[in-house]
Amino acid sequence: MGVIKIMPCLDMKEGRVVKGVHFVDLKDAGDPVENASFYQEEGADELAMLDIAATVENRKTRLEWIRNVSSVINIPLTVGGGIGSLEDYDLVFQAGADKISVNSAAVQNPDLINQAAKIYGSEKVTVAIDARRNREMASGFEVVVSGGTKPVGRDAVDWAKQCEDLGAGVILPTSMDGDGTQEGYDLEFIRAISDAVRLPVVASGGAGKLEHFYQAVVEGGADILLAASVFHFRLLNIHQVKTYLKEKGIDVHL
Predict the structure, then answer these.
(1) Which domains does the chain show, CATH number per domain?
(2) What are the backbone dihedrals phi and psi of residue 19, each rounded to the nearest 5 degrees, phi first?
(3) pTM for the model
(4) Mind telling me the catalytic residues?
(5) What stretch of H or E contains 109?
(6) Residue range 24-34, pLDDT digits in tens
(7) Buried (b) or exposed (e) across 2-38, using 16+ Cβ within 10 A?
(8) Tens digit of pLDDT for each residue in 121-169?
(9) What angle do CA 62, 113, 125 make, to 5 degrees?
């Protein structure tokens, strides 16, 4: 286990940061540029920006958001949402992203992971895996796409292994059962993924208290801790989380 990183996530819709529960009931959480510079000052190690309502028509606006956000930070920026082709990769990298996260498009076309890894390098390719509990799957978790709405009949842990084989550099699993609830990360799901791959795993979905971050590392095996609601609504700050982890013996950059 190396240095554990903290990664706030800007969920974007119509140019604003929003946050919901289980991907619905969205509330406004402010301006992306203000949030991004605030999080960098607070000590964020990385930043994620996910376009939760991405469509092709929205591409130009999205590139503008990326340019605006990347211009105020120098920590790595991961951008996801609606990226479905190498052309999209090019545009998003040109706009200032450091890493790109793909989800639905990778499930539909796994070769996209392979091509992107060859062209840009694995470290720039993140695969987000959204899943729900399903007892019929060997691991107990089924991949869902389209913002968590469509189950695809694939085992989430098997898919994570395949993504690693295809050249992904980071796996970002989100449990739909936990997203936005602030009741804690889905440790069972994160652990199932982190045990199955050798890549850095991002814990995502459900952080609400300091101990949740600790559990994600110790029980979940996560390397990067992503959170949105707790930071956007200022329930916790990044420095608080890092100090807490440090006191618990976890290696973080303070």
Answers:
(1) 5-247 (3.20.20.70)
(2) -150, 135
(3) 0.94
(4) 11, 130
(5) none
(6) 678 888 999 99
(7) eebbbbbbbbbbeebbbbbeebeebeebeebbebbeb
(8) 999 999 999 999 999 999 999 999 887 789 999 999 999 999 999 999 9
(9) 60
